[in-house]
Amino acid sequence: MNKESALTAIGLPGEFGAALLILGLVLLLAPYFAGHDFGAFKIPAFKPALKRRLRVLGPAIFVLVVVMHIPIIQTESPTPAVPKSPPAADVSGPGSVKIESSGARGTATVGESQVSEYNSASILVFARDSQTGAPITDLAPRGHTGNCKSVILLPVGVRLITKLVPPGGCVLEPTNIYNDHTGAYTLSVMTVAKTGPCPWKKGQYHYLLEVNTSEHRGQSFGTIVID
């Protein structure tokens, strides 16, 4: 028997699953970091009564969202799994990683070239073992790497490849990585040319996130829409 996650079983796209992870993480952190700006996303300022409720509901919702990504539902079909959407790619074999990614505009502003947390787009990534469903937590150091003020190098074996940009646009480069140690990663990105920072252009930035290390292999396509 094969196994699949609850999200796959009900036919939801990978982008929706990534959005649920962001929402669950925000609710988890809201009682303690209300109003805090993490660069890739900002925690809203909730009323005290709601924050008290979220101390209980936040962890429960986050755990539920994570469980929805784990393949625990048995299916009868013996046919090989077929990728349902471009953002998720499953490379078969030992060490293969299923990666889901979703691009978001974040704070990126059309025409602005400043390298800053207030002018960056984000890519939310969720990585898990394609055979066991266990979260992959070691693709980057735990916590923040980078400060959104300059381009950083990705960990060895991890590549962000820009596939297509709007007319006059430049390639995407990472300025920060946040690893929350649950298999979820947030990349802050900026557009950069050979001569330096490049202004955001209106349109779609298509990317490929590739993992190819001695222990893990996988990839995911995605799109950031700037409007």
Task: Give structural notes.
By secondary structure, the protein is of the alpha+beta class. The protein folds into 2 domains: 2-75, no CATH class; 89-226, Immunoglobulin-like (Sandwich). 20% of the residues lie in helices and 33% in strands. The chain contains 3 helices and 12 strands. The strands form 3 sheets. Strands 3, 4, 5, 6, 8, 9 and 10 form a 7-stranded antiparallel sheet that branches. β3 and β4 form a beta hairpin. α2 runs antiparallel to α3. The radius of gyration is 18 Å and the shape is globular. Residues 87-91 have low confidence and may be disordered.
Give a summary of the structure in a few sentences.
The protein is of the alpha+beta class.
